[in-house]
Amino acid sequence: MNTVDIINKVVLKKELTDEEISYFVKQAVNGDIPDYQVSAFLMAVRCQNLSNNNTSVLTREMEFSGDVVDLSGINGVKLDKHSTGGVGDKASLIIVPLVAACGGKVAKLSGRGLGHTGGTIDKLESIPGFNTEISITEFIEIVNSLGGAIIGATGNLVPADKMFYALRDVTASVESIPLIASSIMSKKLASGADAILLDVKCGSGAFMKTPEAARELAEVMIHIGKDNGRKMAAFITNMDIPLGHNIGNALEVEESIRTLKNDGPDDLTHECVQAAGVMLYLGGVADSPEDGENMAKESLANGKAFAKFREIVQAQGGDLAYIDDTAKLLGNPKSYDVISLESGFINKMDTLEIGMSSVMLKAGRETKTDKLDYYAGITIYKKTGDEVKKGEKIARLYAQDESLFKAAEKRFLSAFKIQEKIDKENIWPLMLHKIV
User: Is residue 63 part of a domain?
Assistant: First the structure.
């Protein structure tokens, strides 16, 4: 086959054959197609799009470009959940034990954070002793015995995605729904789950800025999953407002523990219960998403969800003393209160700027090699829709280095739009759309 012909077909908006896509991915990963031709293909896709069928085949070829996790040793339906990333999004820490406590089997492979979005693995590693690098054999054993576990992606998983993404990042080819969908779904498919719930975030703190764009991405990913034999569902959720109140690694674990004890923020609890309900339905544990939600609510109320979290932490080497006494978990960082400079109603929060202010405190990474401060972060006291008064405390910043506070405060305050009257019509609900 001829690489130039394949690129030209995309440019002319012609359907590629399965064989052409397979050839291109295999040759690119093997190094037999030069970077400039791979980049030309990616740019052609960004400009001219791909059909859903071509995107599905591209994803499947990317999935099998490296190692594929074999979870066949897990009894029952293997469940997974993926969020496209946001600020304060610690939902996986809650959903995994919540679903496991109700009889589901959640085998979750997660990643680290970069930029304004936090990583589940980083949060778990703020628990002393917690091991996210256990073997797949041990991972399967824990899921079989406890119903859930979370580890980092290991091995040579989807090398095609690593190669494509590196080139997309430097050639302005990132913003393409077929390329975003194939990147996310190739990793999800290679992770071995039977059923996947997608949480596609939209708003200022998400990659997709509008509900319409987020829904389009969700629908393409659902098509890919179903075309590759998976059960699929998706939520479109609001990331114009940080999820919960805590941003930062240990801070988010502490808020997750409170939520599992049925004492968490309403928005975080509501999203996690709905997600757990859908996953229990996909796994055949509940007869409907609504039945699943009721099961999840009951496990929060009777303490089984928190008990399951303790079991998972212990099984993965975490020190339960830090779970039972969260003051130990939070450490003793320096703190700084952010005061409102004006009175009125918060009509808008730029979640990206809030996330980046936490990065300035060392709660997140600007580059992959940056070292995290597990105790750094932000607790937000006032959010969109709330009334504030001049001089009122709206947040608290945490860091080891006091010299970081002033610059982080300036960026944090710039994220708030405070006006005399509340503009309810322009405030999105938490849950914008469900595809189940």
Answer: no
* Residues with a known catalytic role: 82, 161, 168, 183, 187
For 198, counting Cβ atoms within 10 Å of its Cβ (0-12 exposed, 13-18 middle, 19+ buried), the class is buried
Mean pLDDT of 288-298: 98
Which CATH number characterizes residue 132's domain? 3.40.1030.10
Phi, psi of 126 (to 5 degrees): -75, -10
Q: Would you say 14 and 54 are in contact if contact means Cβ atoms under 8 Å apart?
A: no
pLDDT of res. 7? 98
Beta-carbon contacts of 326 under 8 Å, excluding residues fewer than 6 positions away, are 253, 254, 257
Q: What is the mean pLDDT of the chain?
A: 96
Beta bridge partners, 152, equal: 110
Name, in order, each residue with C-beta under 8 angstroms of 395's C-beta and a sequence gap of 6 or more: 337, 338, 378, 379, 380, 381, 382, 412
Residues 336 and 320 in one domain: no
Q: Which residues does 301 contact at the CB level (< 8 Å), separation at least 6?
A: 262
Q: Reply yes or no on whether the pLDDT at 315 is more than 80.
A: yes
Would you give the DSSP letter of residue 132?
S
Contacts (Cβ under 8 Å, ≥6 apart) of 421: 344, 345
How high is the pLDDT of residue 144?
A: 98
Over residues 63-76, mean pLDDT: 96
Assign 255 a pLDDT band (cuts: 50, 70, 90): very high
The single-letter code of the amino acid at 217 is L
Q: Are 144 and 75 in contact (CB under 8 A)?
A: yes
pTM score, whole prediction: 0.95
Domain membership of residue 409 as a residue range: 331-424
Final residue of a structural domain among 324, 350, 383: 324
> Is pLDDT above 80 for 155?
no
Domain termination site, one of 300, 324, 348: 324
> Are residue 279 and residue 213 in the same domain, yes or no?
yes
Q: Give the whole-angstrom CA distance, residue 189 versus residue 186.
A: 5
Tell me the pairing of strands 195-202 and 231-238.
parallel
